[in-house]
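tool_call: predict_structure(chain=1)
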Amino acid sequence: MEATVQARAAGGRSMASYGGRVESPSIDPSAAEWAGSGQRFAGGCPEIDCVRALLAGSVIDNAECRAAALGIGADRVLIAAGVLSEEVYLRALGDALGVAFEPLDRTPRHCCPLNDGRLIESAAAGMLPLAIDGELFLVVAPRGAAARRILRLIEENPVRARHFRFTSAERLNRFVLRHRRAAIVARAANRLKRNWPKLSAAPPRWRTNIVSVAAIALLAFAAAVVAPAATMLAFEVTLAAVFLAWLGLRLVGAFVERRAGKPAPNLPGDALPVYTVIAALYREAASVDGLLRAIERLDYPAEKLDVIVAVEADDRDTRAALAARDNRLPVTVIPVPPQGRAPNRKRSTSRCRSRAALSQ
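tool_result:
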């Protein structure tokens, strides 16, 4: 375990200096997740004080160095390295701060005052308001450096602890999917095609294309009937012009010196975004190990990779292969329930994109 964290905590031990405390730190998703994540507090990263006694000192030191290099909380480093699970960490943090853990398993929809559209967005924000026993709580699934920010909020005013509850990202996504599954699937499957059709691999709108092609074909046929000789001449001239233009382009390309592209900038770890990697599998148990090995070899911080694997619920062999593998980075497995249709990659990928839509 220690060796794993040390390997993943490679990077300089130099830490950025820390300024004074913010009077009223924000827990807005864009601020709470990354803002102030490069700052160092006395005693290292306070968000992991609750688990320091459970881990070796070298593991803690390496996690703190890794967190500073990537601009995230040390808790995310430990979770991504598999040293402890997100739920174990959040329960320990909650015990230290006096914040309860909310499993969300039996929480009814009416407890959340958000409308359906905002409920879907709450998973991306990692925050969900809940009205329980007439009192409003903010259920938080910390990501990035959010745990550190929440800790500072409660340190400044301990009364705030009673208004928070912790939950894991998996439980929060499960709650939203349970109550808005159809809308999320529709959004994941159709939103890109509707908003940016040129970026979508969805089938084109054949009706518009067929009308245009039919109109051109009709005009060409009419011209051939009315003036066959002129139409043939125009067709031959057009073909010759296209051939000459293509030949000219190749000649110009042969004499034009190719310019070397500018090398991609080497971004620091704290400037790297989070990427979601989606893989849909069906009856591919033999491919599981090779696929995940390839993902693990990516030259990218594991803490900033969201790996999702969708697999049909009745594909027991592939699910068993996923469960048996000891992954070097967190992998979310989404069983796709049968819906009375033949299973396929397209349906699995659609469901998988619905899960990814929750975290984007």
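agent: Confidence is low (pLDDT under 50) at residues 1-43. Proceeding to next step.
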